[in-house]
Amino acid sequence: xxxxxxxxxxxxxxxxxxxxxxxxxxxxxxxxxxxxxxxxxxxxxxxxxxxxxxxxxxxxxxxxxxxxxxxxxxxxxxxxxxxxxxxxxxxxxxxxxxxxxxxxxxxxxxxx
Length: 112
What we know:
By secondary structure, this protein is mainly beta. It has one domain. It contains 1 helix and 8 strands. The two termini are about 25 Å apart. The mean pLDDT is about 95.
């Protein structure tokens, strides 16, 4: 498994939020508008399927090599790949048994 072919477990979750700017005036009136060209912020809390521990190490090394850069991934609810970054830059490796592990981390949509 690589970041481009990333598979996720059923308990992985998607979060969506909307960025906006708001001004509140003295008489109680409020004004809101979208913030920027891409105001919809999407992120996934990902848990990979259990894999041999050696494959988990290879995926972890790919994450380390990627660093702050982005990668193309097709989320389960999308028809084409888009760009994502690992944010925050942290992950965990969970051992399901002695020789099998999974990784958990968060990715956020990245616009170029």
